[in-house]
Every structure is written in structure tokens, then in C-alpha cells.
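Q: What residues go here?
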């Protein structure tokens, strides 16, 4: 829904939310937006909708209960069904608009976990069109690094529903360590392992829609064989790699799906370890590994960590 029709958008929200409340919805003007006040029996929540230059922002207030949960689901669906913000323009949906022949049917890929000592490496790909991109935009899909884990898990479910052509490929530490050693023995390194993941994820979604001729990859190094390998299977495919590609809706969606799987597996591994495992590759991760080694052997630790990291060598200091 265009940014200029803000009042119309508020009215639409009010209409959609009416079925959830027992009292009439109150609407109050606030700085840069409107506030909706919802009440169902004894539950009361507020929804502030801000209308700024960068689009709309929603802020919930009041009781975190059944009413807020139900209302949030209605609002998310309403925003997903609305048209993308025309003020932002098509370029906010995809970074491929300058590619000759670009037709707004494209796939994007990204990875999560490559810098984390604990946990898996996950590569994901998402194939979308302009309509899906607009719905993802309105849901607030963006680079997963800008979102909390809670929000990532919420958005991942919605992305999977809106963009059914997606692939999420995790390598848990035990499998990751084996694969890394195999590639190292062949003279390859982590970048080759990452490239193989992107190729596999993109191949999986591109096989599902032979009309898709564009793919965008969040570039992690200057030279790799991603384009060459994909074009063996898809000769008409244009492959673009660039840094900060998460500004594109397909890549942003892939980054969220990859991170959501990473977070879920980290929870599984934390349960296995009997303690919460830290993210990242800092000294706290090394210290946590030392604690685990105090009670378990290296074989157990290798189920939790990527053992080619420098953290692993520091365990012997």
C-alpha cells in the first residue's frame, strides 16, 4: 500500500483487528504516526504505527498475552498482503535491476555460522518474484545481522510460507569437520566449502523453476567457482556476486532462513553440552570449550565445534 495512503492503511488495520476485541478500537494521533488501542475483556494492548521516510515501523505495548499474539499475526498478514512501499521503489526489492533482461524472478543465497567456533555452517537459498519480494519487504525482512534471534525465528516461518521455493542446508560440526578435512586433503580451503554450499542450495531451488535466469550471492571472497558451476547446469543463468547483498529481498530472506537454522541447531547442541554455547569466535568461546573438555573428551567436543578454528589450538595452551 503506498506510503501516501497511511490513513487508509490504519483504517484497514482497524477493520482487520475488530474481530479480536470486545471494545471498540481507539485510535490516537502520536508523533509521526497513529496508535491503536485494543481491548479484549481484561487484556489491553497498544500498537503504535509510525510513518517515516524509511517506511512504516510498528511498536507493540501493553500486555504480552493471547490478544497481542493474535493481533500481531493479523497485522503481519495484513502487511504481507499489502503492496510494497512505492516510495522505496523496485530497487529496494532487488539489487539486480540493472542486469539486462532482469524480469523480477530470481534466487538469492547467503550463509550463517562461518565465523562461529561452536555450531554449524548453514547455507540457504530462496527463489522469489516481485510479488513475493513485496510481501517480504512489508514483513520487515532484512539482513539477519540486524535482527534478534527471536525475530529471526518468527520471520523464518513466514518466509517459508511466502516463498515455498527455498533450500536450507546445514552442516553440523561433526559433518563439517569431516568435510573440511576432506577438502583440505585435496588442497582446498573454507572458501571452497562455502562455495560448494552456495552451489548446492541454489541448484536445489533453481531446479524447481526453470524460468528463473538470475541468481544473486552474498560475496564472501573475490574468486570462486560458483558462477561457473551453476552455469554448467543452468546455461542461461546470470550469476551476480557482491558484498552486502542482504539489501536484496531474496538474499535477505536466505540470510534469515540460514540464521534461523543456525540458532535452532545451537539450541540442540547447547542441550547436548549441558550449557549455553556462545556464538562467535572470541575468547569466551575458547573458555567454554575448555570447560567442556574438563568433563568430556575431544571426540565429544568435535560434535560441538569447528576444529580448524584457532580457538581449538588455544585449548592446548
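A:
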Amino acid at each position: 500500500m503506498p506510503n501516501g495512503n497511511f490513513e487508509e492503511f490504519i483504517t484497514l488495520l482497524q477493520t482487520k483487528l475488530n474481530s479480536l476485541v470486545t471494545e471498540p478500537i481507539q485510535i490516537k494521533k502520536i508523533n509521526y504516526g497513529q496508535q491503536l488501542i485494543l481491548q479484549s475483556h481484561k487484556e489491553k494492548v497498544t500498537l503504535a504505527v509510525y510513518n517515516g521516510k524509511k517506511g512504516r515501523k510498528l511498536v507493540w505495548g501493553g500486555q504480552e498475552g493471547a490478544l497481542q499474539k493474535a493481533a500481531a499475526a493479523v497485522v503481519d498478514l495484513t502487511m504481507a498482503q499489502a503492496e510494497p512501499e512505492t516510495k522505496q521503489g523496485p530497487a529496494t526489492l532487488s539489487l539486480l535491476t540493472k542486469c539486462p533482461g532482469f524480469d523480477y524472478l530470481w534466487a538469492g543465497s547467503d550463509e550463517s555460522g562461518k565465523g562461529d567456533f561452536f555450531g554449524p555452517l548453514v547455507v540457504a537459498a530462496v527463489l522469489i518474484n516481485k510479488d513475493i519480494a513485496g510481501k517480504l519487504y512489508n514483513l520487515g525482512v532484512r539482513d539477519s545481522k540486524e535482527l534478534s534471534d527471536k525475530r529471526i525465528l518468527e520471520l523464518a516461518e513466514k518466509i517459508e510460507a511466502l516463498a515455498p521455493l527455498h533450500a536450507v542446508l546445514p552442516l553440523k560440526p561433526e559433518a563439517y569437520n569431516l568435510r573440511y578435512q576432506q577438502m583440505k586433503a585435496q588442497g582446498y580451503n573454507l572458501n571452497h566449502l562455502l562455495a560448494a554450499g552456495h552451489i548446492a542450495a541454489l541448484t536445489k531451488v533453481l531446479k524447481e523453476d526453470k524460468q528463473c535466469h538470475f541468481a544473486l550471492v552474498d560475496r564472501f571472497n573475490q574468486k570462486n567457482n560458483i558462477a561457473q558451476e551453476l552455469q554448467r547446469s543452468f546455461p542461461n543463468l546470470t550469476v551476480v556476486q557482491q558484498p552486502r547483498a542482504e539489501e536484496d529481498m531474496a538474499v535477505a530472506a536466505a540470510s534469515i532462513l540460514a540464521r534461523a537454522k543456525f540458532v535452532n541447531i545451537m539450541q540442540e547442541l547447547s542441550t547436548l553440552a549441558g550449557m549455553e554455547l556462545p556464538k562467535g569466535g572470541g575468547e569466551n568461546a575458547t573458555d567454554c570449550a575448555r570447560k567442556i573438555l574438563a568433563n568430556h573428551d575431544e571426540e565429544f567436543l568435535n560434535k560441538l565445534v569447528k576444529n580448524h578454528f584457532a580457538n581449538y589450538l588455544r585449548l592446548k595452551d
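A: Context that may help when evaluating the design: Confidence is low (pLDDT under 50) at residues 84-91. Residues 249-273 form the longest helix (25 residues).
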